[in-house]
Specification:
92 residues, mainly alpha
């Protein structure tokens, strides 16, 4: 709050000062800068390696699909599939 010069000279205002902390030492600044640097560089690290079963590529993925694949269902008779055979009972 600004105080007019004349009022301050007459003593109408009491001026008090707050205690101020001492500035940080070189050691404290070094510790703080080191902590900041570690956090900063941590953002550029690669994530830890996962135990992904397909980490070596597409060939392993396709091989695993082939291994898990069950036998194909047996093809149905020609009289049941209208798209392939165009033969539906009663529609001739």
């Amino acid at each position: 709050m600004p105080v007019p010069r004349e009022a301050a000279l007459r003593g109408e205002f009491a001026v008090t000062y707050a205690a101020v902390a001492a500035p940080p030492s070189l050691e404290e600044l070094t510790v703080a800068a080191g902590a900041w640097w570690r956090r900063f560089t941590a953002g550029f690290r690669l994530p830890p390696q996962r135990t992904d079963p397909y980490r070596y590529g597409m060939a392993e993925y396709v091989a695993s699909l082939r291994d898990r694949q069950s036998t194909l269902p047996a093809s149905q008779g020609a009289g049941i599939d209208p798209v392939v055979t165009s033969s539906v009972p009663g529609a001739r």
